[in-house]
Amino acid sequence: MTEKLTVARKENSALSQSSKTKDLVLTALLTALVFVATKFINFQLPFSIHGGLIHLGNTMLFAVAIVFGAKKGAISGAFGMGLFDLVSGWVIWAPFTFIIRGVMGWLIGRIANDKGRNGTSFKWNIIGILVSSIWMIVGYYIAEVIIYGNWFTPLTAIPGDITQIILGIILGMPLVAALKKTKVV
């Protein structure tokens, strides 16, 4: 009897370890997708003084947070976009991005998946995106005030932030719907 119990515990431990490994690999993959969408699919707005970078990282962040939840949304947003800042000449922004995008991913995932919604309610997904987007705009405004010591200059980045959000919704919501229909999730 004791031998069977020991074997069962070892099997459960192996399954648990396998599950943790799969979760870690999935989280790393989602983080990489956010990074790639931010790094390689972007352009600078010509009228913004310091910011105004438009990228598809939001599209991936929205999809990751809605489909996979708050924890993976927070991690992929913080590390994916924070890494972008580190390797793209925006190093001074990395600590701000890490916090802003981490909280953003968590907010979206939490609101979209709360109370058993599991990211299936279009209305709550949009609410999650809008709440987190307000956080993002305010967060980057404050970050830019800190970095540049100016209250006016950061206002020029807000149209770019709003453009990113709208683009993220337009491209991200169909991606979420497609992912929800697959057996990958």
> Kindly state the mean pLDDT as a whole number?
89
Low-confidence stretches: none
Task: Please report the distance between the alpha carbons of the first and last residues.
Answer: 38 Å
Q: How many helical stretches?
A: 6
Quaternary arrangement of the chains shown?
Answer: single chain
CATH class, please? Answer: Mainly Alpha
Shape: globular
Count of strand segments = 2
Order of helices and strands: HEEHHHHH
Strand content: under 5%
Structural class: mainly alpha
- CATH architecture classification name: Orthogonal Bundle
Helix content: over 70%
What does this structure look like?
This protein is mainly alpha-helical and about 180 residues long. The protein has a single domain (about 30-180), classed as Arp2/3 complex 21 kDa subunit ARPC3 (Orthogonal Bundle), CATH 1.10.1760. Helix content is about 75%, strand content about 5%. It has 6 helices and 2 strands. It has helices at about 1-40, 55-70, 70-85, 95-115, 120-150, 160-180, and strands at about 40-45, 55. It has a two-stranded antiparallel sheet. The protein is globular, with a radius of gyration of 19 Å. The chain starts with a helix and ends with a helix. The mean pLDDT is about 90. Pfam families: ECF-ribofla_trS. Keywords: Membrane, Transmembrane, Transmembrane helix.
